[in-house]
Structure formats: structure tokens, C-alpha cells
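Translate structure to sequence.
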């Protein structure tokens, strides 16, 4: 059974070809249709999810607008209270009258605020009062401190602020507070006479507990994947839902959001944390002057699309299995007579013994059988022809080797191009061509395996110049080589493959500019080079694979590193070769350690 399965999936057999042909005819249309259908459906589901999320945001905005309206209406009702108006008109109160007025205001404020559990305290400020008798405070308050109000004259500044705005004032925190975020907020209303000249009598301040105020928005089901933020018109954070969000994650999001411009729809990713992407949108709440923003992780917005994707994959796998079964039956019906013919050829390799087999002329397989005898007769002739062809091929390869490009021709050609670039006033092109000429000069180096360290550094610098011309502005090159290293020699082409790795694996995929640095110095008993880049680094699991590949002899997918390491290790033995260090998201450094060498390749004792 296993042999038949191997034969069926082996594309070199006729049965395998029929099997893969049938499978392809099933899979390719299925993949195309599934991809098109999935993309169309996923886009639609994602769009609907974004519309639903934006509708929820608008609903929350309307809710907060209604709450603000209720507070505004409450402040107007309190202002119109005749008893409060009479108290605020009093100019010279003795202590007894002041205490009695505090009690009267407390009673009427209790009546008005009993249906508003988010109001934790209040402050009534009388413009006509003197000293502390201007202030009528409710319960113990975080924001309304008598000493602050009097010593810093905050009450007077509030009065001026309210007179300048002439509207309900929503303050995220008391101006004297230095903290970035406060658990309480203040709503201020200017109090005026309701009759006569409508002169200003003072102001009313309501202390609001933010948790209680925003409790009504729990229908939004905020979570770490679906977060809501309220910002005042100065960019300060008013409130963040949910409150139990991981503090570190929440602070990272808040820091990023302060530099993001939000649209009115979830049309783009605005924040990325690690491998998590968040979509954002915002609405403006006119009554409070706040901006409400929401961040929703793409896994939430695209949840239905992902479910549909899994269903599509399951359907695809089911159709694939059915297709394989059909391919198996179809390929088996075609290949069965061919397998019989093959068995006949193996059992009867002699052309003369095949004469006993008769084939029906109308059958395709019988025609193949008749041809087989003729092929046996021509086999010897073909062997002779193949032998002659191999001899001619060898001769052609020798001629090709003899016709290799002369290095001097290459240098002269590059020199001509360099002169042409200078004549055309193309200094940058001239510099790149010159660097390319130096690169090939060291690469060929008349077949020498060892070159001076200065030539190797010049070679890799020329390579970097060519790459900088190709990837303009992609990276910065820093080369700091100890001058004491220059008299020594080293195997050529050790540095260039590692710098190439740094460019292609470290910085090529980076959107901004990066830095690649080559440094070198002498230790007590060796020469050491270090190639570093500030790219994405190497993950820990991948780093283990690379170290294991360097030590076990299996190259895996690190051919450049493995080649350099093996050349050093096999030539100089243990203690020399490559070492890697990396910190994901910060840097990657590859170190090369080689002994002191003279021009003859002999190791020099330190």
C-alpha cells in the first residue's frame, strides 16, 4: 500500500503525473474561487463590523451629550431657586446667618442632586460675600479646599473664567492639581440674577465622580481589545475605559494616542503594540468640548471574517480530499495497463523473448509494446551516440573555460566607464564605478587566498558604496578599524558576506534609515572584527537554530554565515570563527576571530 502511495505521488511516473494533473485541476480553481470569495466576504464583514463599532461610538456620544444636558439643566434649575438667589444677594452676613445659609443651601442641594449619584460634592461661591463667607461647600471634597480657594484666590479665577466663557464649564481637574489624571472632575455654572439686570451673583461648582459618571457606558463592553478614551479640549485625558486595563499597556496606548490624528471612521490602523494592531475612530461631544475616541484591536473587528476564513479552509480541505480520491481512481485506471507493460519489460529484458507477446494494434499500450522491441535494437546505437556526445560536451566545457573573461579586460572596461561618467559630469556614478572596480580587483586578486587586511577593508567598503548607491538613504556606514591591524593578512572575502547579511536581513525591510558598523581591534592573541546593525534583531528561537547550525555542520538557511565560519574553523581550528549576539528590536552583532597571519599565511605568535 505504501509503495502504491509513493508511486502515486511521484511526479516522475505516469501515474503520478495523472494524479497531480487531476489534483491541480481541482485545487487551482478551488484556491482562486475560495480566495476571491473569502476576500469579498471578509471585506464586507469587516466593513459591517467597523460600521457597527462606529454606531456604538455615536450612541455613546449621544448618551454623554444627554448626561451633559441633564447636568446643564440641573445647574439652571439650581440657579433659578429663589431661596438661593436671596442668599447670594446678602452682602454682610454674621456668623449665625452664614451657618444658617450653609444649612439651607445643603438642604436644597440634597434635593436637587439626590437623583445624580455621580455628584459627590458642590461649591457655591457668592460674589457679594466677604472672605470665607463667600464659600458654601457641601460634603468633604477633593477639589473644593477652603485653604486653596482663599489663599490662592482660585474662587476669583473660576469666576473670571466662567464670566469669560458664559457657558457651563467642564474641567478635567482643578487647575491647581499637578497630576496628569484626576479621579474627579468639576462642572462650573455662572449664577446670575433671574430678574432685573441679571447681574452675576457667583458660581456653582459640582464635583463629579468619573467612575460613576461613565458607568452608564458599560453597554459598550469595554475590554483590553476594545478601549474608549475621553479627551478634553486641551488634550488631557478625562477618562479611560476599561479601568482594569493592564497599566503598562494602557500607558503605552495613551502615549501613542497623543501623537495620532483620528478619522471619523475605522479606515486605518493607528496604533501598533508588538504584533497587535488597533483601529481607531473619534467623535466630538459638543456640550462638553470633549473628543471621544475608541481603539479596537483588528482581531475583534475581523472576528467574523476570521471565522469565515476558518470555514473556507475547512471546506477547501474537504474538497481537496475528495479531489485526491478522484485523482487516485482516475490515475489508477490509466496507469494500470502501463504498469503491466513495465512489469513485462523488467521480467523479460531480452528483445527476443518479447516476440512471444502479442499486442492488439488498436490499443495504445500495445503500440508502445511494439515500439519497445525496436527500441531494444537501437539501444546499442544510442549508447554509442551518447558516448560521443559526452566527449564532445567535455571538449566544449574546456573551450568555455579557456574563453573566460580576462580580468584586465574587465578593469579596462570599468575604467572606460569611469572616464565616460567623469566626462558626463556624473561624479556619483564615477564613484560607484570606481568602487565596483575595486570590489572586483580584490575579489579576483589573481587567485590569491590571502590578502592584506587593508585590502579586505577596502573591498567591503567598495561593496557598501555600491549598495548605498542602490539603496539610497537606507543605511549609514561606519568603519572604525585599528591602524595596528593593517600590516597583518587574512583570508579574503570574510567581511563582505556578513555585511551583505546585515543589509538584507537587518535593514532592507526597515522603513527608516539604519546603521551598519564595521569595527576591528587586536586582542592579546587574535584579530577581531565586529559587524553590527541596529535592525530588528534575531528572535531567541532563531538565534538557537543559527548557533546550533554553526556548531553541528548543518547549514540550514545560513549559507553565508556557515561558509565564513567553516572557512575560518577548518583553516585555523577551534577557538576561531564566528560569534553572534543580538537583542530583538535593538541590534545584531557578528564577531569574527582569526589569528595573526603574515603574507605567507603563517600564524604569528602574539
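Result:
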Amino acid at each position: 500500500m505504501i509503495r502504491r502511495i509513493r508511486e502515486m505521488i511521484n511526479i516522475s511516473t505516469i501515474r503520478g503525473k495523472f494524479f497531480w494533473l487531476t489534483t491541480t485541476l481541482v485545487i487551482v480553481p478551488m484556491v482562486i474561487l475560495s480566495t476571491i470569495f473569502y476576500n469579498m466576504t471578509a471585506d464586507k464583514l469587516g466593513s459591517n463590523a467597523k460600521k457597527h463599532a462606529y454606531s456604538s461610538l455615536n450612541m455613546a456620544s449621544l448618551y454623554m451629550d444627554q448626561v451633559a444636558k441633564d447636568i446643564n439643566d440641573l445647574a439652571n434649575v439650581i440657579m433659578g431657586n429663589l431661596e438661593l438667589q436671596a442668599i447670594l444677594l446678602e452682602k454682610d452676613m454674621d456668623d449665625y446667618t452664614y451657618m444658617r445659609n450653609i444649612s439651607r443651601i445643603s438642604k436644597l442641594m440634597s434635593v436637587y442632586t439626590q437623583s445624580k449619584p455621580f455628584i459627590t460634592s458642590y461649591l457655591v461661591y457668592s460674589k457679594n460675600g466677604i472672605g470665607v463667607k463667600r464659600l458654601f461647600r457641601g460634603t468633604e471634597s477633593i477639589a473644593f479646599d477652603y485653604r486653596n480657594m482663599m489663599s490662592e484666590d482660585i474662587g476669583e479665577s473660576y469666576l473670571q473664567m466662567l464670566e469669560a466663557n458664559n457657558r457651563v464649564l467642564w474641567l478635567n481637574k482643578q487647575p491647581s492639581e499637578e497630576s496628569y489624571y484626576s479621579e474627579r472632575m468639576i462642572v462650573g455654572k455662572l449664577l446670575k440674577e433671574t430678574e432685573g439686570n441679571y447681574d452675576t451673583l457667583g458660581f456653582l461648582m459640582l464635583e463629579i465622580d468619573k467612575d460613576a459618571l461613565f458607568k452608564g457606558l458599560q453597554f459598550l463592553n469595554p475590554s483590553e481589545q476594545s478601549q474608549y478614551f475621553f479627551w478634553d479640549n486641551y488634550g488631557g485625558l478625562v477618562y479611560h475605559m476599561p479601568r482594569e486595563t493592564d497599566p503598562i499597556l494602557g500607558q503605552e496606548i495613551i502615549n501613542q494616542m497623543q501623537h495620532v490624528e483620528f478619522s471619523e471612521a475605522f479606515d486605518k490602523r493607528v496604533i501598533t503594540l508588538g504584533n497587535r494592531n488597533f483601529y481607531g475612530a473619534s467623535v466630538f461631544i459638543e456640550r462638553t468640548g470633549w473628543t471621544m475616541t475608541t481603539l479596537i484591536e483588528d482581531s475583534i473587528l475581523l472576528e467574523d471574517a476570521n471565522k469565515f476564513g476558518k470555514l473556507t479552509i475547512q471546506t477547501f480541505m474537504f474538497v481537496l480530499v475528495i479531489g485526491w480520491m478522484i485523482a487516485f481512481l482516475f490515475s489508477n485506471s490509466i496507469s494500470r495497463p502501463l504498469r503491466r507493460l513495465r512489469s513485462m519489460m523488467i521480467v523479460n529484458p531480452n528483445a527476443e523473448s518479447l516476440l512471444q507477446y502479442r499486442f492488439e494494434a488498436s490499443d495504445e499500450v500495445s503500440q508502445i509494446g511494439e515500439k519497445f522491441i525496436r527500441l531494444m535494437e537501437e539501444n546499442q546505437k544510442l549508447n554509442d551516440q551518447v558516448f560521443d556526445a559526452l566527449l564532445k560536451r567535455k571538449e566544449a566545457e574546456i573551450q568555455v573555460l579557456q574563453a573566460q573573461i580576462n580580468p584586465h579586460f574587465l578593469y579596462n572596461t570599468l575604467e572606460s566607464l569611469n572616464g565616460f561618467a567623469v566626462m558626463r559630469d556624473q561624479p556619483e556614478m564615477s564613484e560607484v564605478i570606481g568602487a565596483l572596480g575595486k570590489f572586483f580587483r580584490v575579489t579576483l586578486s589573481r587567485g590569491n587566498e590571502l590578502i592584506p587586511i587593508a585590502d579586505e577593508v577596502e573591498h567591503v567598503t567598495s561593496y557598501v558604496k555600491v549598495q548605498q548607491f542602490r539603496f539610497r538613504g537606507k543605511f549609514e556606514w561606519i568603519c572604525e578599524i585599528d591602524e595596528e591591524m593593517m600590516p597583518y593578512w587574512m583570508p579574503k572575502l570574510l567581511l563582505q558576506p556578513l555585511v551583505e547579511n546585515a543589509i538584507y536581513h537587518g535593514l532592507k525591510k526597515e522603513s527608516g534609515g539604519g546603521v551598519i558598523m564595521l569595527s576591528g581591534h587586536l586582542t592579546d592573541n587574535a584579530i577581531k572584527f565586529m559587524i553590527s546593525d541596529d535592525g530588528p534583531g534575531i528572535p531567541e528561537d532563531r538565534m538557537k537554530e543559527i548557533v546550533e547550525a554553526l556548531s553541528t555542520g548543518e547549514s540550514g538557511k545560513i549559507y553565508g554565515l556557515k561558509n565564513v565560519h567553516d572557512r575560518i574553523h577548518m583553516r585555523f581550528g577551534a577557538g576561531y570563527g564566528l560569534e553572534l549576539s543580538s537583542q530583538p528590536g535593538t541590534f545584531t552583532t557578528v564577531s569574527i576571530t582569526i589569528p595573526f597571519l603574515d603574507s605567507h599565511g603563517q600564524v604569528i605568535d602574539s
